[in-house]
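User: I'm curious whether this sequence folds into something compact or stays loose and floppy. Could you predict its structure so I can see for myself?
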Amino acid sequence: MDATMTRIWAYFWLPETKYVIVVFAVLALLLLRFLPRDRRRIGATSALFALSCAGQIFGALLEALDYSRLAVMVHEVFVIGSGMALFRLLAVFAFRIILPRVGIVLARIAEDIIVLFGYAAFILARLHLVGLDPSSLLTTSAVITAVLAFAMQDTLGNVLSGVALQLDNSLQTGDWVKLDDLAGRVVQIRWRQTTIRTRNGEMVIVPNSQLMRGRFTVFGRVDKPDWPSRRWIWFNVTYDSPPTLVIQKVEKVISTAEIPNVARDPAPTCVLMDFGPGYARYALRYWMLDPQPDDPTDSAVRIHVFAALQRAGMQLAVPEQSVHVTKENVAYRESVRQRDIDRRMADLHKVELFAGLQEEELRTISERMVYAPFGKGAVIFEQGEPAHWLYLLAAGEAEVLHDFPGQPRQHFRAIHAGSTFGERGVMTGEARHDTVIAKTDVVCYRLDQATVEEVIRSRPAIAEAIAAILWRREVEYDSFTRQFTDASTSPPSPPKGSMLGKIRDFLGL
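Assistant: Here's the prediction. I'll summarize afterward.
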């Protein structure tokens, strides 16, 4: 029994065996330490190595029992198995730890090809070492390979296409692609197929040969997150709106508004694309940063376009048709108009600026108020612009910002529903002191300077009450600006009567 165990141990424990086991154990521990996500793969490779070692011991047992021919075959099979397991760990250690640290990242398919060549070279070398001529195997395998290649043309085409896709870096995991009517993100590139996840969460399997034969569009690269893609928003406007004015209004609102996922550079452009029956067809082209929320971003842009056209008094085109209008319809529209005026007058009663006005004066103002909606982030007016309108905020919230030389823009105050703003410039002729931006989607009514001047001229005494309100706001504004300027050089707050003098001088009272 002792002699048998000695023969088994001598046949199994070769001079290089202990080095192979030590190297494998060290590699496995290092990979478990640095690549915890690959524990399953490392465990499977370790199990293969342990099984190969057990197989070599079984081959040694057969040798001890004088089954020499069978023992050699079993021993070599399991030596090849242990060698392949060791080579696999060496490849993972090199490709996943060493090469990335020096800035080299190979495609997954390239790694697999190198490992396969390594396996082939090791097997041929081992066969040559035990005296088996590999050329006879190669001749036989060549015939088998030719038969298999003829029978698996499509599969081989997909495999070679997958290799080409990754080696030339034309497609990467994480890229956004469009193939015919399919658009989505590449989640995996395998030997045979590429998996694409659509925005609806569907997983679409595309054969690699189809990608190589056809044409696909990459509109978002994983290695270039700041690479925007251009989107098109189409809309129709009636012919009574000048095209240059339509383009100007739309481009301004999209380039200045804070719209999530819309790039400021390159700047958006609006172009007149076509003439239709009763309308001109326009296209707004803007650049989107993240391709995932495409429809929500388009919706936000359309909201701003629609609000800008409404503020400018421009109508979106609708199908034309002839309608016979009866007297009752005219009366109905008049009643709707009166209800709208009554609602505006109720809002005006709540505004401090118009508290001293009579009913007829309030009615005059309400009839001339212009509906002016703004989308979230839109600039209502900017600091330094000439003042043409007084605004009443009916719904939503806006914020007042001020620019100081050499400093970032500062928040002054918030404007809530039921408040007015922009009064000072309309009543004194001064340029805008602040920038007002819609903090939410807001609904405003604006009143032109001519109407304000007409009301004050009819009753000059109103100017005193309005001047007192504007003076109080002027004091708040001066207190705010002193926080960001040199107090020693800032002029003192104006006297209460100075605001009334400015109003009278501007309106010629």
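Summary: The chain has a mean pLDDT of 81. The CA atoms of residues 136 and 162 lie 31 Å apart.
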